[in-house]
């Protein structure tokens, strides 16, 4: 028998135990802070795009200008939603019960939001700008569909199945 073998085995067991003890998953507070830090610029950008588009729509004189403004809004919102989704993916999976399911809920909601904006962008892109009345009628339908898709994509954080995450979202400064 070689004495080195049990020492090597012991070292391996210590290494495995230390890796298992450090799952690398962020705790509830760290995950909530990371998610809120990711979502705040997204909310701000969506709000800014919407405000800017509303202002431009009030002064738009042609359906072509309106189409251009809406394409910029929906494309920008699509890009912002994808950046937010990627940021939440980067936050990882919280070290809480059902952490993977919760993280998937957040990323799935953002992906659905991204897709809703992409669909609206494509819808507007395909519209003829003449006659103007028909264009605006079709824009209204695209916006109604966007609102429906957007509502369907929303994530109700009050239904989180984690007491730790509910508490973390209420307590961390990044989420206020």
How do you describe this structure in short?
The chain is mostly helical and 176 residues long.
How would you explain this protein's 3D organization?
The protein has a single domain, classed as Up-down Bundle (Four Helix Bundle (Hemerythrin (Met), subunit A)), CATH 1.20.120. Helices cover about 80% and strands about 0% of the residues. The protein contains six helices and no strands. The longest helix is centred in the N-terminal third of the chain and has 32 residues. It is elongated and about 55 Å long. The N and C termini lie far apart (about 65 Å).
Integer count of domains: 1
Distance between the termini: 63 Å
Shape: elongated
User: What would you call the quaternary organization?
Assistant: single chain
So what's the CATH class? Mainly Alpha
Following the backbone from N to C, one meets helices and strands in this order, namely: HHHHHH
Architecture, according to CATH? Up-down Bundle
